[in-house]
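FAQ: What does a ligand-bound record look like?

Like this one, built around manganese (II) ion:
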Amino acid sequence: MQLRVVVDQPWDVAADVLAVPFVGEPTLQGVLAEIDRRAGGELAALVAFGELKAERYSSIVTAAGELRAGRLMAIGGGDAGTITRQVVVRIGSAIERRLAGRSVKTLAIWLNDLGDRIDGGVAAAAELIARGVVEGEFEPATIYRDNFKSVPPALDELILVAPGADAAAVKKAADRGVIIGEGANLARRLDNRAANDVTPEILAGEARAIAEKHGLYIDVIDPARAAKLGMGMFLAVGAGSDNPPRMIVLRSGEEGATDAAGRRLAIIGKGVCFDSGGISIKPANQMEEMKMDKTGACTVIAAIATLSRLAPGTPLLAIAPAVENMPGPHSARPGDIVKAMNGKTVDIINTDAEGRLILGDAMCYAENLGATHMVDIATLTGAVGRALGDQMTGAFGTPQAWYDKVAAAGERAGERYWQLPMIDEYRPDLDSWYADFTNTGSPEGGLVKSALFLREFATVPWVHLDIAGTAYFHKKTPYAPTGATGVSHATLVELALDGAK
Ligand code: BES
Ligand code: MN
Ligand code: ZN
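The answer part, i.e. the structure of the complex:
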């Protein structure tokens, strides 16, 4: 897709479709009034008819009259007071998805009304809209078939219309948005793939291809090496499957290098290619969703690739422990005692609390490689989805200053996080008769306890993002299909870019 920025008025832009996002009520003043006049009063008629409404992401497509575009789309941005960076991304996606199944090669989007509502103005709107359009192109229904009818159009050209703006600055911002959107889609495509298609070994192969394409260092640790390294928790989870586990390690920048923020940042993603629960097997209902339990891994792999496109050579480590959690003759049993890489012993009382086991060893390994700051990302608990739903990621971290840095990156990325407390009083619930601690306690406060478990494997500043609620949608919205959302990819990229030269 080509990207072009024009500073002409929207009525002078030739494209298959001109999309006009507006904020608040469709009162048709200023630029909108002129567009309506040239479109022969179509917009005013649709407002009177009740078809064109203020509601966020609601849209109409109509004849363009004397506009130079072939068709006109108007789309509601919703209440001015609640326009966020995330809303702007989603408007971009909603425009693209509204055109699914239609013949569109060139799409023009007018930016000014949105640009007036966010920090960074029109350039920021360009970045976020471009990212949204690219994310809107993603359609998981096409991964395994080519007869799906309602595919969002593959654009030849996206034209951003920003009268009065500095075209070069707007273009630069939009290019960045496209790259971040493409990275999110790379993660989503992997996330959505089935467990019979993406085993730990295949995921490692995908990571290798990505590393080669972007000039990243890669190391894939097999079970024999993991055993030598003492990754007892990781190996216990992987033992139940015929598809052996892989610890995937990617690096950008030189070995041991510190980034411009003085950090050696590691991002660590849970890569459970299928989570049956193991011997503590899950109920059949919705178990198929557990192919998405590798989303954290896919996200960190995509994020380091995106970083290498935006700021090549910036130091970053991405670690993705990849396993299949299966019942079988070699599976870990409830009550098995294993030793983590940091020497702590763990009593596996529930084999379905596997994410924290593989992440714990990955965090130890990150620190062994010299990480000074860590963020892990995982579809870790059903509880976070029950608490916060699919719009807000639950997050933990210590010290607070590091959490705040991650939260600030999330803000820039237009992603939502809710900080949850690590309540020390609950830690004794993980005490074990036989080992240093168990991997689960009683269900009350289980979300907090999952973070208390992970904290046992962090000696440097660390943040934990529980994306079990936000990683994939169960139903489509105007801005996204069912399936992987790409959540937190942009946050991790923004965080890593804090360390770019
Ligand atoms: N992968 C699941 C968490 C999950 C649940 C993700 C639903 C997405 C949707 C995780 O490994 C798990 O099984 N967690 C258990 C933990 C419990 C045994 C302490 C859970 O949340 O029930
Ligand atoms: Mn599980
Ligand atoms: Zn899991």
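Follow-up question: can I read anything off the structure? Yes, for example: The pocket of zinc ion (ligand 3) is lined by residues 272, 275, 293, 354-355 (CB under 6 Å).
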